[in-house]
Amino acid sequence: MKFSSTDPCDQCEEMLQPYLDRELTPAEQAQAERHLDACEYCRRRYRFEVDLRRFVRQAVAEPMAPELKQRLASLRTPL
Domain of 26? Predict the structure, then answer.
């Protein structure tokens, strides 16, 4: 992975989504994990992303109530 910055936190940010998607090479994964172990700020960002992904998975798994669907449809404006 080619980084656009030399700042370790910027690099970690670039690696975060591929890290969560398990798309990094083993060496890149180890690099990301070393940084996350050492940097509280990036660790908090990582936890936020993990929680956000969990929330999205739960949100799409729960069916929307028909009343809510109807209400949302009534709020649409024509293009």
Answer: 8-75
CA–centroid distance for 7 within its chain: 20
Residue 1 lies in a domain: no
Q: Computed from CA positions of residues 22, 39, 8, 27, in that sequence, does the dihedral angle turn out positive or negative?
A: negative
**Residue 61 maps to a domain:** yes
List pLDDT tens digits, range 1-42.
Answer: 767 778 999 999 999 999 999 999 999 999 999 999 999 999
Specify the number of domains making up the chain. Answer: 1
Q: Who's near 4: CB < 8 A, 6+ residues apart?
A: 10, 14
| Residue 56 domain flag | yes
The model's pTM is 0.69
